[in-house]
From TrEMBL:
One of its GO terms (molecular function) is nucleic acid binding. InterPro entries: DNA_methylase_N6_adenine_CS, HemK-like, Methyltranfer_dom, N5-glutamine_MTase, PrmC_N, RF_methyltr_PrmC, SAM-dependent_MTases_sf. The gene is prmC. Substrate binds at N193, P194, P195, Y196. Belongs to the protein N5-glutamine methyltransferase family. PrmC subfamily. Signal peptide: none annotated. This is Release factor glutamine methyltransferase. GO terms for biological process: methylation. S-adenosyl-L-methionine binds at G126, T127, G128, S129, G130, D149, F176, N193. Residues 117-195 form the Methyltransferase domain. The keyword S-adenosyl-L-methionine applies. It comes from Pontibacillus chungwhensis BH030062. It comes from the Bacteria. Pfam families: Methyltransf_31, PrmC_N.
């Protein structure tokens, strides 16, 4: 059996992925995972031989990704978010960099208002893999964090991630804020990255997304606004006297979601924040 260097493995994979119109960066992500190294080491150690067993697994995964569109995160079972590794699978949405900006926006807003020093009741609505709830619980002090999801499979993943990172989270199965409404608890901070992609946009999405991310976490009716309408309608039943509502939104939904909030909370102070690509991505509303 011929031996392959790191450079040869990368060259083969890059050519193969290009044939299938896949991102060639997948090759490096897989190699870094199996060789337990960082990208700089792939370059510095380009002449090192890849063990046969690892190369065979690498080849299999490249074929699976290229031919079937299985996300690299599902192949290796993890994705990095806000400096931490989280378990992911087909039951949960793969974390996106834009959601890290939601974390930054919420923590900055709470610190600006001096709320980071208060004991806060916080809920993450539609928690998925738990990245938002876990990250906020670890980045902030004095937070009693709840996390809600309709999917028991997603909650199973979230609980594993919380255990890995030693985050104290109260997980609830249910639709949006219904479990909090039933408990009678009042929330100081309500944060959510709900499904917001209109069904009409399905055909424009990559097969890597459409065929492997859970539909429940992607698509929403009412031109992508249905989840926002439901959550906002439930907020009056769970919010503390003063509360912060934070949403991740689609790039063209800033005005529409702001309108949904003001219809229920006419006196709300609303900020629409843009992401690194200068697109509307986050709404912060003081209620």
């Amino acid at each position: 059996m011929a031996k392959h260097t790191i450079w040869e493995a990368r060259r083969w994979a890059s050519s193969f992925l290009t044939e299938y119109n896949r991102e060639t960066n997948v090759a490096d992500l897989l190699l870094m995972h199996y060789l337990e190294c960082v990208r700089a080491q792939l370059l510095a150690n380009a002449k090192d031989v890849v063990e046969e067993e690892i190369f065979n697994q690498f080849q299999r995964d490249i074929h699976i990704h290229a031919e079937k569109g299985v996300p690299v995160q599902h192949l290796i079972g993890i994705e990095e978010f806000y400096g931490r590794d989280f378990k992911v699978n087909h039951h949960v949405l793969i974390p996106r960099p834009e959601t890290e900006e939601l974390i930054v926006a919420v923590t900055k807003q709470l610190r600006r208002e001096g709320w980071h020093e208060r004991n806060l009741n916080m809920v993450d609505v539609g928690t998925g893999s738990g990245i938002i709830a876990i990250t906020l619980a670890l980045e902030l002090t004095n937070v009693e964090m709840r996390a809600v999801d309709l999917s028991p499979d997603a909650l199973h993943v979230a609980k594993q991630n919380a255990a890995t990172h030693k985050a104290d989270i109260g997980f609830c199965e249910g639709s949006f804020l219904e479990p909090i409404m039933e408990s009678g608890d009042k929330m100081d901070v309500i944060v959510s990255n709900p499904p917001y992609i209109p069904e009409a946009d399905r055909s424009s999405l990559s097969d890597v997304v459409v065929n492997h991310d859970p539909e429940l976490a992607l698509f929403a009716e009412d031109n992508g606004l249905a989840a926002y309408r439901t959550i906002v309608s439930q907020v009056p039943h769970v919010k503390a006297e003063e509360a912060l509502l934070a949403f991740e939104i689609g790039h063209n939904q800033g005005e529409a979601v702001s309108t949904i909030i003001t219809e229920t909370f006419p006196d709300a102070t609303i900020h629409v924040l843009q992401d690194i690509n200068q697109k509307d991505r986050i709404i912060l509303a003081w209620l």
